[in-house]
Amino acid sequence: MKQVATVCPYCGVGCQVKVNVQDDKIVSVNGANGPANEGRLCVKGRYGFDYSRHPNRLTRPLIRRKDAPPKSADLVVDPANPWNVFREATWDEALDYAGGSLKHIRDTCGPKSLAGFGCAKGSNEEAYLVQKLVRTGFGSNNVDHCTRLCHAGSVVALLQCLGSGAVSNPVRDVMESEVVLLVGSNPAINHPVAASWIKNAIDQHGTKLIIADPRLQDLSRRAFIHMQFEPDTDVALVNAMIYTIIDEGLINEEFIRNRTEGFEDLQRHIQAYSPEAMAPICGIPAETLKLAARTYATSKASMIIWGMGSSQSQHGSDNVRCIIALALLTGQIGRPGAGLHPIRGQNNVQGASDMGLLPSAYPDYKSVEDPAAQRKFEELWGCQKLDPKKGLTSMEIIDAAVDGRVKGIYIMGENPAMSDANAHHARAGLANLEHLVVQDIFLTESAYNADVVLPASVYWEKTGTFTNTDRIVQLGRQAVNPPGEVRQDLWIIQELARRMGLDWNYSGPADVFAEIRKAQANMAGITWQRLERESAVVWPCRKEGDPGDKITFVDAFPRSGGKGLFVPCEIVEPDERPDEEYPFVLLTGRVLEHWHTGVMTRRSRVLDAIEPDPVCHLCPQDLAALGIVAGDPVTLETRRNRITAYARADSKVARGNVFMPFCYYEAAVNLLTNPTLDPEAKIPSLKYCGVRVSAGGDPAGITGFGGIAKANREGVAV
Ligand code: SF4
Question: Where does the pLDDT of residue 585 fall: very low under 50, low under 70, confident under 90, or very high at 90 and above?
């Protein structure tokens, strides 16, 4: 038995783990004493490891057969038996075909006819090389990743208002907070170890928890206030709090004078947003809104943690601008226990953004349209001329694939066929491509229409750095060897780059990391040797030997002039409301046991045994009114599509709402969701659209995917 110190591969909390390995096989995982977890783990971290040995694991490169059925948005390929669509190939044949075809498209149709998706589950080194491949090999900035679908709204607002897209304080700083305001976030499900620190703060220090979320949650029982507001009314709710803070003189005048700009505009604008005027819109009584505002503003240290409930909206950046204004009005930022924390979803979504896996920014968030930044990266990368225009975002890439402007896509580890809003449209885009290369560990829904599938290494089979939600760069160490002919992702990216004509010769992750230090000023002081020694270093860390800054924005914000900016926001009508035909609101998210599109956790034996079947959650009163018995199949239908799932009675869900996780391929809820984008962040409205719920439906598509007793699905007594 050997024990390997590494990091959990799931959420952005970044818990350190010890992996117990026998005969090159992981047999168990324990919590380790990392800065984010101190030995704690949730069920995913503890039990979600054996997907790596699932029999459907890709172990050889695949090439689409000449006699395969036509590509189609509706094509389904059995991952256990894909042989009517794909044949096995050697690495040389697969890479030559993958790279050669992409190069041919670039040379005949132009650089902008190609695009690449990187992966927020991959390492910093992988993300860095993917964006560099697209910029220097494909020849454009058409590169993006799933931060577009989670915190793009937050990043746009944070960059505009504070000059930095990262968190100001680590999650564990809640232990220093008198008040924690949780907006659109359900950490007990999505970031359980983060939730455990909030529970400790409440139990040990009497911290007051205020939650604003349309669904009740496990933490609600410990909350001082839970504002179960109407979905998609965040701006009304937070503006009412801003109004109260200004109206009752609870502002921090000195902080506003010295550290901010734009207060007068906000003060004028907010007059229309009194709690009395907003109460009927957001569904929260005016007195409750005032109490929440007073409690937040008058504490010695208040922290705001928000999640995708705020950002995954066509108003995502406005929602977050309002949240930021709360902190700037009261000076609740830049101190222990006082700050702003957009809690990150994937294990390396912070790092992937830091590495420039974005169509608008190079590493270190330098704009691709800034000539000085272009010159810097042309010099660093030894290339002639980088594309001076922003590229397409992930949903725009799909639109361009549908209408033929983009003809070739390289997907490294993402699954837009499941994660994009209106996923049938994404599937149609992928099916319409001349050439699609997918690099992944299983034959994902996005790979059904691939021309080449490259079998990738899982997290446990490689070494690299990962940046958690607290900005802590941690070393993930290889625990086991890849099976079959699987190669490590860095090798695959580099070989593909060579086929595109790039002369790359990185010897391994440490070599790539050395280049990252030159590209990302905030990480310039972090050495590979220090990571090997200490396992975790927080950025900013600009010089070797710096301890790194756990808390940022202490004296100034990294905007020109150093001041934070108030940006007043109005209520904007959503493009789709529930109506007579589609009377319920559809909310989407996760369940505790399953991660994202379910590719890993649904192939983890313990996790799948606990939560095997697709379920949608409705409150018992709505189920009764619809004549639906918990555990029976129901059909959910929106203006875009329909799916069938099992009904679960869940009194945490408000009347008139339906909650559905997006991890079930047999009932993919993103076939239903609304693709309308936030105009600046380009994040879709994944958490709000009208839906019709009806009893029955075809259960054929959902039975047999777990085969547990119906009783296990009826669950959830509250
Ligand atoms: Fe892994 Fe997140 Fe759970 Fe920690 S809280 S064990 S990082 S999934």
Answer: very high
Q: Which two tokens stand for residue 350?
A: 């912070």
DSSP-derived letter for residue 346 is B
399: pLDDT strictly greater than 70: yes
Write the DSSP string, 664-688. Answer: -GGG-GGGTSEEEEPTTT--EETT-
Q: What is the mean pLDDT of residues 452-477?
A: 97
Q: Between β-strands 472-476 and 536-538, what pairing exists: parallel, antiparallel or unpaired?
A: antiparallel
Give residues with Cβ within 8 angstroms of 257, minimum separation 6.
none
For the CA atoms of 582, 583, 589, 593, the dihedral, rounded to the nearest 10 degrees, stands at -100
Ligand 1 pocket, Cβ-based, cut-off 6 angstroms: 8, 10-11, 13-15, 37, 41-42, 44-45, 191-193
What's the CA-to-centroid distance between 43 and ligand 1, angstroms? 8
The span from the CA of 426 to the CA of 443, in Å, is 17
Hey, how many other C-beta atoms are within 10 angstroms of the C-beta on 675?
Answer: 20
CA nearest to 471, candidates 557, 533, 530, 541 = 541
Alpha helices in 304-393 (DSSP H): 308-311, 316-330, 349-354, 371-381
| Encoded amino acid at 474, one letter | Q
Q: pTM for this structure?
A: 0.94
Of 221-225, 509-513, 677-681, least confident by mean pLDDT is 677-681
Ligand 1 centre to CA of 271 (Å) is 43
What is the residue type of 326?
A: L
Nearest to 82 by CA among 98, 66, 58: 58
Compute the distance from residue 211 Cα to the ligand 1 centre, in Å.
21
Residue 290 is inside which H or E element, if any?
helix 286-298
Asked if residues 663 and 601 have their Cβ atoms less than 8 Å apart, the reply is yes
Can you say how many angstroms the Cα of residue 157 is from the centroid of all Cα atoms in its chain? 16
3-state SS class at 144: strand
Alpha carbon distance 223, 200 (integer Å): 13
- Distance from residue 44's CA to the centre of ligand 1 (Å): 6
Distance 17 CA to ligand 1 centre (A): 10
Give the C-alpha separation, 529 to 638, whole Å.
53
Q: What pLDDT band is residue 29 in, cutting at 50, 70 and 90?
A: very high
Beta strands in 159-301 (DSSP E): 179-183, 208-212, 225-227, 260-261
In the DSSP assignment, the letter for residue 476 is E
pLDDT value of position 707: 32
Helices (H), 110-151: 124-132
CA 415/CA 604 separation, integer angstroms: 18
Per residue, the 3-state secondary structure of 487-546, as one string, reads CCHHHHHHHHHHHCCCCCCCCCHHHHHHHHHHHCHHHCCCCHHHHHHHCEEECCCCCCCC
CB 344 within 8 A of CB 152: no
Longest dimension (CA), the chain: 73
At residue 439, the 3 state secondary structure works out as: strand
Distance from CA of residue 20 to its chain's centroid? Answer: 28
Cα gap 136→385, rounded to integer Å? 9
Name the residue type at position 412: M
Q: From the alpha carbon of 193, which atom of ligand 1 is closest?
A: 5
Helix (H) or strand (E) holding 17: strand 16-22
In the numeric block, the tokens 């940006």 are attached to 567
Q: Which two tokens stand for residue 28?
A: 């168990």
DSSP 562-581: S-EE---------S----SS
* Residues 57, 600 contacting (CB under 8 angstroms): no
pLDDT in tens, 312-353: 889 999 999 999 999 999 999 999 999 999 999 899 999 999
Predicted confidence band of residue 703 (pLDDT cuts 50, 70, 90): very low
Q: In what order do the strands lie in the sheet with 536-538?
A: 464-467, 472-476, 536-538
Residue 11: φ, ψ to 5°: -90, 175
> Which atom of ligand 1 lies closest to the CA of 37?
4
